[in-house]
Amino acid sequence: GNSVTQMEGPVTLSEEAFLTINCTYTATGYPSLFWYVQYPGEGLQLLLKATKADDKGSNKGFEATYRKETTSFHLEKGSVQVSDSAVYFCALSDQRTGGFKTIFGAGTRLFVKA
Amino acid sequence: ETGVTQTPRHLVMGMTNKKSLKCEQHLGHNAMYWYKQSAKKPLELMFVYNFKEQTENNSVPSRFSPECPNSSHLFLHLHTLQPEDSALYLCASSQGELLGQPNTEAFFGQGTRLTVV
């Protein structure tokens, strides 16, 4: 079945450091890929998405590229801020093989220190 | 404002109580979901509804009973819960079945923080 694996946290960085959170997926079809973010005390919000191979999703300085050859969708940001401290979830949705539900990774908590 | 509203935001209930969680969306979506988020555990999908029909129940105990009277509203009825049921319960919605189109993203409510005492 379809699944998502992301790096375990927590990840602790200093402000302005470079961020990478790894995400790999298993899917029998051609999924859409997402990154969601959860700030303390809130629900999940969509951060960015990519719907086909080689697409790059970007938002708020974050980027992720859909790599079919490595089945990956790693999240990157060149310079993190304290306000980026949150839990980040990689996710996929494949209507053709998994229905329309979204499958989430376990989440990676990011702490950014001033 | 995410377009998905959950009430109450916080709930404390005893193990013998009966309570309900409510979720409402005005995004025109046809699919709605209940997720459970516990500390140090992955997000767990509990129930899926598409066009008011339940399409998935991931081995959820019968003390959790969902209800979807229409595409805009979703309830989770709770009775005789256990302390280990304490968690953040998240509701989400998405466009649902849309053949031939890339899957759209899910929109989440802020969740109900449930504590069972």
**Rg measurement of chain A, Å:** 14 Å
Question: How many DSSP H or I helices of chain A?
Answer: 1
Mean pLDDT of chain A: 92
The secondary-structure class of chain B comes to mainly beta
* Termini gap of chain B: 31 Å
Give the rounded overall mean pLDDT of chain B: 89
* N-to-C series of helices and strands of chain A: EEEEEEEEEEHEE
Structural class of chain A: mainly beta
Secondary-structure element order of chain B, as H and E? EEEEEEEEEEE
Total strands of chain A: the figure is 12
Strand portion of chain A: over 45%
Assembly state (oligomeric): heterodimer
| Biggest sheet character of chain A | 6 strands, mixed
Strand-helix topology:
The complex is a heterodimer of chains A (114) and B (117).
Chain A: E1 3-6, E2 11-14, E3 19-21, E4 23-26, E5 32-38, E6 44-50, E7 56-59, E8 62-65, E9 75-77, E10 86-93, H1 95-98, E11 103-104, E12 108-113
Parallel strand pairs in A: 2-12
Antiparallel strand pairs in A: 1-4, 3-9, 5-6, 5-10, 7-8, 8-9, 10-11, 10-12
Chain B: E1 4-7, E2 10-13, E3 18-25, E4 31-37, E5 44-50, E6 53-57, E7 64-70, E8 73-79, E9 87-94, E10 107-108, E11 112-116
Q: Would you kindly provide a written description of the structure presented here, covering whatever features stand out?
A:
The complex is a heterodimer of chains A (114) and B (117). With 114 residues, chain A is mainly β. Chain A has one helix at 95-98, and strands at residues 3-6, 11-14, 19-21, 23-26, 32-38, 44-50, 56-59, 62-65, 75-77, 86-93, 103-104, 108-113. In chain A, the strands form three sheets. In chain A, strands 2, 5, 6, 10, 11 and 12 form a six-stranded mixed β-sheet that branches. A four-stranded antiparallel β-sheet of chain A has the order 3-9-8-7, with no helix packed on it. In chain A, a hairpin with a 5-residue loop joins strand 5 (32-38) and strand 6. Chain B has no helices and eleven strands. Chain B has strands spanning 4-7, 10-13, 18-25, 31-37, 44-50, 53-57, 64-70, 73-79, 87-94, 107-108, 112-116. In chain B, a hairpin with a 2-residue loop joins strand 7 and strand 8.
